[in-house]
Specification:
Elements (H helix, E strand, L loop, with lengths): L1 H7 L8 H22 L9
Length: 47
């Protein structure tokens, strides 16, 4: 939650609960995508 609030802010701009849930879902998807992009590719090293 800390990372989400720091990046996107702690406020929701919609009044209706359904719209707030959709906005929060979109923010979570964007945060997950940013996390995936920043992760390095991992592969096994054979010795």
């Amino acid at each position: 939650m800390f990372r989400l609030k720091v990046i996107f802010g702690g406020n929701l701009s919609f009044r209706k609960f359904d719209n707030q849930a959709i906005a929060l879902f979109i923010k979570c998807v964007a945060l997950n995508r940013m996390s995936q992009i920043a992760q390095p590719d991992s592969y096994a090293i054979e010795a």
